[in-house]
């Protein structure tokens, strides 16, 4: 019997795709870890490909492939991402990535809400 996707025994996965030395990658990582905590989930297992999402056609994404295999073998059922842009900037490639993950056993793909800046407040 498969464990439910919210089982504490199953850690969620988190996927990031960014160029090497990208300073926003660490912020995204922290945001996804915090998001998992707010949801009452264990800390996620990160899969990070060092490539720009728009170069998906031209470069291999070995960590995405590892993520799919981990979904197939039941290691994860929930995926956390900062936005669908991690899959690609093209809608058809985003849909393909989601279909592949769903077919592999991913039951939920969750994204943290963006933090809104209060209107009229000086930063």
Give, in order, the helices and strands: EHEHEHE
What is the CATH C level class, in words? Alpha Beta
Shape: globular
Please work out how many helical segments DSSP would assign: 3
Per the CATH scheme, the topology name is Rossmann fold
The chain-level mean pLDDT equals 83
Q: Decide which structural class fits the backbone.
A: alpha/beta
Find the count of extended strands (DSSP E, 2+ residues): 4
Number of domains: 1
Distance between the termini: 52 Å
The CATH architecture comes to 3-Layer(aba) Sandwich
Summarize the SSE layout with pairings.
Blueprint: E1 13-18, H1 23-38, E2 45-50, H2 62-72, E3 78-80, H3 91-104, E4 108-110
Helix pairs in contact: 2-3
Spell out the key features of this protein.
globular; 4 strands; disordered C terminus; four-stranded parallel sheet; 123 residues; Rossmann fold; 3 helices; alpha/beta; 33% helix
Give an overview of the whole structure:
The chain has helices at 23-38, 62-72, 91-104, and strands spanning 13-18, 45-50, 78-80, 108-110. With 123 residues, the protein is an alpha/beta fold. Strands 2-1-3-4 form a 4-stranded parallel beta sheet, with helices on both faces. α2 packs parallel to α3. Residues 115-123 have low confidence and may be disordered.
Brief account:
With 123 residues, the protein is of the alpha/beta class. 33% of the residues lie in helices and 15% in strands.
């Amino acid at each position: 019997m498969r464990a439910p996707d919210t089982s504490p025994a199953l850690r969620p996965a988190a996927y990031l795709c960014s160029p090497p030395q990208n300073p926003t990658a660490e912020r995204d990582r922290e945001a996804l870890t915090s998001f998992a905590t707010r949801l009452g989930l264990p800390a996620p297992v990160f899969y990070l490909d060092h490539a720009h999402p728009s170069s998906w056609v031209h470069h291999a994404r070995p960590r995405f492939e590892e993520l799919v295999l981990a979904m197939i073998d039941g290691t994860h059922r929930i995926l956390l991402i900062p936005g669908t842009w991690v899959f690609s900037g093209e809608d058809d490639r985003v849909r393909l990535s989601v279909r592949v993950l769903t077919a592999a056993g991913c039951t939920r793909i969750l994204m943290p809400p963006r933090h809104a800046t209060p209107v009229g407040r000086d930063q």
